[in-house]
Amino acid sequence: MKSADIRESFLSYFESKGARRVTSSSLVPDDPSLLLTSAGMVQFKPVFLGVKDLGFTRAATCQKCVRTTDIDIIGTTNRHHSFFEMLGNFSFGDYFKSEACAWAHEYSVDVLGLDPDRLWYSIYEDDDEAERIWAEEVGVPRERIVRMGAKDNFWSAGPTGPCGPCSELYYDQGEDIGCGLDSCAPGCDCDRFLEYWNLVFMQFDRAEDGTLTPLPKQNIDTGMGLERTAAILQGVRSNFETDVLRTIMAKAEELTGSSYGSAEKADTSLRILTDHARAVTFLVADGVLPSNEGRGYVLRRLLRRAVRHGRLLGRTEPFMAEMIDIVVNLMGDAYPEIVEHHDLVRRIADAEERRFTATLRQGLAVLGEKIERLKEAGSPVLDGRTAFTLHDTYGFPVELTAEIVAEAGLGVEMDVFESEMTAQRERARAAVKDDSWTSFASAFNEIAARSGETEFVGYERDDVVATVVGLVADGTPVDEISEGTSAEVVLDRTPFYAEQGGQVGDWGVIAGEGDAVFEVADTMFPLAGVISHHGELSSGALRLGDTVTATIDVMRRERIRRNHTATHLLHWALRLVLGDHVRQSGSYVAPDRLRFDFTHFEAPGTDQLDKVERMVNAKIMENHPVRSYETSLASAKESGVTALFGEKYGDFVRVLEVGHFSKELCGGTHVARTTEIGLVKIVSEGSVGANLRRIDAVTSFDALDYVEREESELAEVAAALKVQRFDVSERVGALVKRVKELEAASDRVKAKLSVANIDQLLEGVVDVGYPLVVARLKDLDAKELRTTADVMRGRLGGGAVVLAATMPDGGAPLLLAAGSKDAVATGFDAGALIKAIAPHVKGGGGGNPSMAQAGGTDASGIDAALAAAREMLGAPE
């Protein structure tokens, strides 16, 4: 059975059991405590926490997942993956253990056709109920039910919160695969008993004292690894030999000229290319871009690791784009987002690959310099921290570093390197630790469970009468707050827009009974669907159940609306001017400014930005209507609506249309007609990461203020130059030209003076096997000192010079040594000399045997430095 057939059969089977087929969520989770989506249940956490009702109680998914806590292990085994597909069936307070066990067995045996005599089952050591269900209800032989401890068979979200026992299904691959020990059984480290499905029975709430209390609604969360299941059904020993992964690997073989199975090192590299190609494709398609932090760093590590293993296999030309092509061809039917973003994924991967190639060259230079220093110092070993830096910063596998230093007769301090790698893995695990479940009994969960979601009425209204349903002070739910208290207020309905989609939260006031006034300084979503008003009670008292009037700061909202609609116009214009590959990749919409991040591969030209600005302002002046409406995501996409790159959407979405030229999904607040924006002025444009650009702009009165400031500056410059404003650039150009002419004349005068000084300096020449001058000069910068040395060296006809000078602006010391080819051949080494004498001026520097220089901080040491030079070169004082 092919992987696609397994995927479809699983989803269809659980649909027949009343489950809703739910599309895989993005690899970028809504949960801010998680780095990446690593399990099928992630998108259902609000449901398990009781703060969200999906309208159905049974679900089935095939979830795309990424786990990278042990990235350096991936490729060295047959089972580890960075990207994988997790099949799962879920119950939200509906069916429980009996059905979960019965259906898992039925699907495994009757649908997949697995031999029931090869199936084994593990249960938690104290879960007698699970053993009874497997043995008596399902009919599994008791001798194939294995009890295991909490480490293997008890799931918990954290120290407190939901938890419960697990039951895992194993497939016996046969004695010939196992370790051969009599004790071999499910849980053994060998590959004989392959765990392919985990059933989690979420039935308890653990208190801080460890007490387990049954949950009011017991849930089911299961996960079946698609790749492992495919390996079993296709009769192969490795996930990498299954249909999808083996086809991707075939492409890697073609591109590198390698053959899987010919050598273990090559096999490891081919597995890495195969695995990482999928991870890179799906991460970028879900909006992750290469960077040096967070998700972007995970992507960068995966991409660069794949590239360097391509190099180890002999591939020197870029190849990741072709690997991405095969992934899209194989998996695009199941995941249409990788087809939609195919071209963008290729371009980003290719740009990162080319950038890394340059980084590799830099790393080789760093390593080469380090080897030279080790040789000079007589050290036989490269320190482990340097090896780790080469691995982490420049992408050098330690094997490559060891190979290069071995050619120089050196070794690598592997114990320190391994220590650094272990520390990095621990940091990675800590970074992706899921702490969000520990908020199970938090204040906002309680509020949501009691009162449901907040109704947002801010699209139509600026104020509304509402009821206080939650008060939180210092993270704790309270019944009342008094004057001067900083708190968070939750209402049953509100006109306040909570920060999301780049738009900042509203400000305003909540007026309660009597003289109660709560001043709102921010509005946020502490939980999906729950709007929290942050602020301080300036007078009176506020209690649960109070009737209040919530009113936003209307003028502030107006400015935000103008800026938000302007981002849509910018997106439209940038795609027309720069190309369809441009995608919004983040924004910040505040009352006084807007920031717009977008994908692009080079700096736009000034003429292009001018054109974008003109196009945007033209649409503003044309007074186009702006309207929004809600529809299904499917209908929106069918009508050509632009879904923002990396954004996640539910089944129903809000569409914003500007005239007949811009149509995007957006839940923000906007103007009614484009003329309300007034004016858009681009303030700056620059790079904020690989293939990522940022525009800062202002609109309306802020744009007018910006233009007025520019005019004021221009007027001041014009007055100083005594010209009209429109003649400033011409006058400045003439002045710049004149300054350069004067600088050139000054250099000629200095050169003439230098020649006169040189005649005097050459009178001090001595013979040390070649003509040598050691001299101290005054008031020369580094360029002038080099010019003097070049002239003197030429005049000496094959000699060497050692010069010292003080800088004109502050008197900082400079040292320079230079020698002709003949002097170097005789033994003169400028680099070694400068390294030896630079400490006298509390400085450092270097160079090569024919030219070296150094700077310092202590000019009083110049005479000592020159004396040391004379002594080293055997010249008389």
How much strand content do the residues show? Answer: 15-25%
Low-pLDDT stretches: none
Average pLDDT number:
89
What is the multimeric organization of the chains shown?
A: single chain
Helix content: 40-55%
Number of helices: 25
Q: What characterizes the major β-sheet?
A: 9 strands, mixed
What is the terminal separation in angstroms?
A: 90 Å
Rg measurement, Å? 35 Å
* Number of distinct beta strands: 35
Overall outline: globular
Sheet/helix structural class: alpha+beta
Description:
- By secondary structure, this protein is of the alpha+beta class.
- Strands 1, 2, 3, 4, 5, 6, 7, 8 and 9 form a nine-stranded mixed β-sheet that branches. It has a six-stranded antiparallel beta barrel with strand order 13-16-20-19-18-22.
- A hairpin with a 6-residue loop joins β32 (800-806) and β33.
- The longest helix has 36 residues, at 342-377.
- The radius of gyration is 35 Å and the shape is globular.
- The N and C termini lie far apart (90 Å).
Write the layout of secondary structure elements.
Blueprint (H helix, E strand, L loop, with lengths): L2 H13 L4 E3 L22 H4 L9 E9 L16 E10 L4 H15 L7 E6 L3 H11 L6 E4 L1 H4 E3 L4 E12 L20 E14 L5 E14 H8 L9 H14 L7 H22 L8 H19 L7 H12 L4 H5 L1 H36 L3 E2 L1 H10 L4 H10 L3 E2 L1 H18 L11 H9 L3 E2 L6 E11 L2 E2 L2 E3 L3 E6 L1 E2 L13 E4 L5 E11 L2 E10 L1 E3 L3 E6 L1 H25 L5 E6 L4 E6 L6 H16 L4 E7 H6 L13 E7 L3 E4 L14 E10 L2 E8 H22 L6 H34 L4 E2 L3 E6 L5 H15 L3 E7 L6 E7 L1 H6 L3 H8 L6 E5 L2 E5 L6 H12 L4
Helix pairs in contact: 3-4, 7-8, 7-10, 8-9, 8-10, 8-12, 9-12, 10-12, 13-15, 17-18, 21-22, 24-25
